[in-house]
Write a structure and sequence with these properties.
Shape: extended
Largest sheet: 5 strands, mixed
Helix content: under 10%
Amino acid sequence: SLDGRILDLKSREPIPNATVWICDRDATPFGFDACAEHITGVDGRFSVTGIPDERVALAACASDHAVKAKMVPRGANEFHLLELERGWEIKGQVVDGRGRLVPGARIGRNPHDLAFTEDIVLETPFGETFDADFSPALITDANGEFRHPGVAGRDRSIFWGIAEGWFGVPSAWVRSPTHASRPLELQLVPPATLRFGLGLEGESIQGEVSLLRRVSRRTNEMLNAELDDDGRYFFGGLPGRELKLRLEIDGYLPIDLGQVLLVSGETTDLGQLPVVAGATITGTVTDGSGPVLEARMVQVDFGNQERIHKFSEVENGAFSLRGVPLNEEVVL
């Protein structure tokens, strides 16, 4: 059984008639339809019996409050206190480039812990960092519609659809709670693709290639390239707009592509790009008496106009940094 109580986070008062969901690990759709639903009493308490003998998700929500969820280990028998912050309902639909409703699409939301601007969101190829931060995941139903009874009360948020083979266009800023009361229409468009080859002195080269993508003012992440059958590289799933791009190539100097216009549903081919071999820096992380075996990462910074960072994992205190420019001062 599961027993607990639902309180308002600020006032500490019990919340009567709050909804409590018990979801087993197979209940991934989050229209709340897949989860057993229960209602709290006037004192905000609930008691649910017949819980499966496995790890389950416990979630709760109430009017004008955000959903709060926690995982309950198998066989846990403690009292569960859930304190709900202020929140609001969001709802809407996901449509593709032809105006068709898309069932089974996930809903993404900009991460809470990153300082976003609208430009950064729009210029970022979404990936794992931008997966939906709802627990369980928020997914459209068979009619392509979604509803969340209570998202956390941030000042503003950006939402987008996530579906295989499509690029989710970010919504405008949704400010709570005024804009959130209007149904959202989240657009999916065909993604853009970027193709290119790499060559050194007329010979094609192959290796690990990444595309720099900006996540926030302080955080960069890399999108790894895929290798085609013809030995050329490509990035799929990119937004169709003009982006400032830079390639990171293992063992070679970065290639600054500048502003590149990408078109939704089309492939932009950059042809054969020349590469320049870089230096390799090897060394050891030491405390003076020997290698620091607990060390995890070494960073090198270089570049005069725009600082470029490369990283190397440390194994048993040793590191190796490839693709560092020759005849230029760098910082480790």
